[in-house]
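Human: Respectfully, please carefully check these C-alpha cells:
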Amino acid sequence: MKVASLKTHVVATPAPHIGGMYWIFVELETACGIKGVGEIYSTAFHPSGIAVLVEDVFTRYLEGHDPHQIERFWRAAYSSGFTQRPDPTMVGIISGLEIACWDIIGKAAGRPVADLLGGPVNDKLRAYTYLYPKNSAGEYDYNDPDLAAEEAIRMVEAGFTGLKFDPAGPYTNYSGHQLSLPVMDRCEEFCRKIRDAIGNRADILFGTHGQMVPSSAIRLAKRLEKYDPLWFEEPVPPGQEAAMAEVARATSIPVSTGERLTTKYEFQRVLQLGSASILQMNVARVGGLLEAKKIAGMAESFYAQIAPHLYNGPVGAAASIQLAATCPNFLIHEAIMDFGGFHAEVLKTKLSFDDGYLIPSREPGLGIELNDEVIAKHTPYIGERLHLQMAPDHADVKDFMPAKG
C-alpha cells in the first residue's frame, strides 16, 4: 500500500467562528483507492502559506510511502532540514498527515483507530464545554457573570459536568502580566456566581491562557480555591515550565497545560518539573495520534491525567476522541457544545454526543466522512485574520472588560 495523492482544504468557518476562523483538513488517498482525512492545527501563519508547506512535507516524506510506516514518516519530517526539535508549524503539519494515515490504516483493517492504539478502555468520554452566553440582543457576551451563570445552568441541563470560562483577559502580545484588582474581583465573581448557580452538579474549569506572571497567578489562585475549580489552566505563558511549577506548588487547584505545546519532549519537562498534573494536548498540533499516545503513557507514569484540548474542527475532534478512548488516565475532553452547527455540517454524520458524554465511533478509521458539498462551499478561506489572535497592546489596569484578545 502506497500513499499516492494529497488534497488540502482550508475551510472558512461562518460567523461567529466558533472553533476558529478556519480549519485545515487534509485528504490522503492510496494507490489502491483508500482515503484518509486529517486536520492540522497550525496557527502562526496564514493558512494559504500552511497549504504550501503541507505539499512540501507530503512530497518529501510521505508520497509513495506505506501509510503504516508512521514512526518512519514522523522521524523523517521531524528531522527535516537538520531541525530535529519542536517546531509548532512543522509538528502541526506532521499531525494532520499522520492522522490521515491512521484513518487509512483503520479503514484498510476494518477497525476503528482506537482498536489499533491498544484498544478502548473508555466506552464514553466525559465532556466539557466553554460557556457561550448571549445577551438580550442575541450577541455573545463574555463580560457578564450573571449571563455566564445562566448559561452554566443551561449547559448542566444539557448534560455537561464540566464548564470552562476565562474572565482573566486580555490575552496580549505582552503577557504575562499582573492582573489588576478589578479583574481579579471579576474572576472571583464569575466563579462565585457560577458555583452558586450549579452547585456541585458540574466542575468549573478556570481557563486562563498565559495572561499572568507567577506572582499574579498565585494571588488569583488563592482567591479561587474556595470555589474548588477542577483546574487552573495555563496560568503563565507556555515555555516557562519552571515558572508554572512555582504556581502549581503554591495552590491546591490542579494546574493544567498543553494546548500550545508540541511533542513528548516539551511535555516531558512539564511532568519532570511538576508544572501541571493535567495535560491538554491537541492531537492536531502535538504530533499526531501516536505522539499523543506516547505523551499520555508518559503522563500515566507520573499519575498525571489527560484532558485533550479541542478548539478547531471536527476531524481533529474525531481523532482525539479515538485517542482518549484508549487512555486509562483520561479525565475529560473538550467539546464545542455538542459539536452541532458547522462542526456537524462539514461531516456526513455528526460526532456522537449523549447527555454530557462523547461516544467514540466504532466505524473503521476515524469513523467520519467529509461532506464534500459543504467543504467546497466554504473553501478557500480569504480572510486575513489568523485562527486566533492576541490583543496588540499592553493590558490596561483601568480596562475592566476581561474578555478581549
Notes: The mean pLDDT is 96. The longest strand covers residues 3-12. The chain has 14 helices and 13 strands. The CA atoms of residues 133 and 148 lie 6 Å apart.
